[in-house]
Specification:
By secondary structure, this protein is an alpha+beta fold. It has 4 helices and 3 strands; from the N terminus they run ααααβββ. Strand 2 and strand 3 form a beta hairpin. The chain is globular and about 45 Å long.
Length: 140
């Protein structure tokens, strides 16, 4: 066992040696669970994506502890924001954004999640595309 896999295995419950693909790993780790693991999973994935971009574009490298801390901090901030009482709901006008395909040789994964108001149901989906923008796979 390498030190990085030992660190991952020791630091969280997300180690699954039986998974043979990203989709298999997600199902092995989370299954059909509807609990706090989903929130942590999403912020860890986002933190890893952000770290990858920092390393790729700015040559800034952070250790696993920093990435984990950033994920925990983001999740805590989100949970704290959910505790605020909101008296009116407004739906903001959608931003004028366009999807851009990834660089050649890269794969882009777009993830979307939704939670019902009662917090009892969570849904997530992802779509992968290659550097030509060609659809590879969708998971929901």
């Amino acid at each position: 066992m390498s030190s990085s896999s030992g660190c991952l295995e020791a630091s969280c419950d997300y180690f699954s040696p039986s998974a043979d693909s990203l989709e298999g790993w997600v199902h092995a780790v989370l299954g059909n669970a509807v609990d706090e693991r989903w929130g942590r999973f999403i912020v860890i994935i986002w933190s890893l994506w952000k770290q990858r971009n920092l390393a790729e574009w700015k040559e800034e490298f952070q250790g696993a502890a920093v990435v984990s801390w950033a994920a925990d901090s983001m999740l805590k901030s989100w949970e704290d924001a959910q505790k605020l009482k909101v008296t009116a709901r407004q739906v903001p006008a959608s931003a004028n954004t366009t999807w851009q395909k990834p660089q050649q040789g890269h794969i882009k994964i777009n993830i979307d999640t939704a939670v019902n108001e009662m917090g009892r149901t969570r849904v997530w989906e992802w779509v992968t595309r290659n550097g030509r923008g060609t659809f590879i796979k969708a998971v929901n």
